[in-house]
Design a protein that fits this description.
This protein is mostly helical and 145 residues long. It has 2 domains: 1-60, no CATH class; 62-145, no CATH class. The chain has helices at 2-25, 32-59, 63-89, 96-130.
Length: 145
């Protein structure tokens, strides 16, 4: 885990040095903080322009997918934070396999949840069709999603 983090830190340091070199070679007077402001801002907006249309498309009928993407992202951040915290405080071994195991646990539990949800929704739809409820309106899905 520590080696993995060192590789990431080294990559970030190389990119940082390249940006600082560009900053110096173009004789701009951006400070380190101003460059962080610009680079992270541009990175975030680039991600937003890619992700927003995808989420807009998914939001029409797939709210659970959006929720899963959000929770998955938060789980990864939490898992990394726990491992980094263990490495800094010495309360445990900082290990990448722990992150993989934690994320795998979330994935396994989500698959069980999705299977149970599919069965329950299937039963509701079967009961509705047998009782003559006919085709459901789009608004009816809000009760189950």
């Amino acid at each position: 885990m520590a080696d993995f983090l060192y590789v990431i830190v080294k990559m970030i340091a190389v990119i940082h040095d390249m940006i600082m070199t560009w900053n110096d070679s173009f004789e701009t007077v951006f400070s380190d903080k101003e460059l962080h402001f610009l680079v992270i801002g541009i990175l975030g907006m680039g991600m937003l322009f890619v992700i927003y249309p995808l989420f807009k498309l998914l939001s029409e009928n797939h709210v659970l997918v959006i929720a899963w993407i959000y929770v998955f992202t938060v789980i990864i951040v939490i898992a990394f934070a726990i491992e980094i915290g263990q490495g800094i405080t010495g309360t445990g071994k900082m290990d990448f396999d722990d992150i993989v195991a934690g994320v795998a646990g979330f994935m396994a539990m989500f698959i069980v949840f999705a299977a149970i949800r599919a069965v329950v929704l299937g039963i509701f739809r079967l009961i509705r069709s047998l009782s003559g409820g006919g085709r459901r309106r789009r608004d009816d899905y809000d009760y189950y999603d």
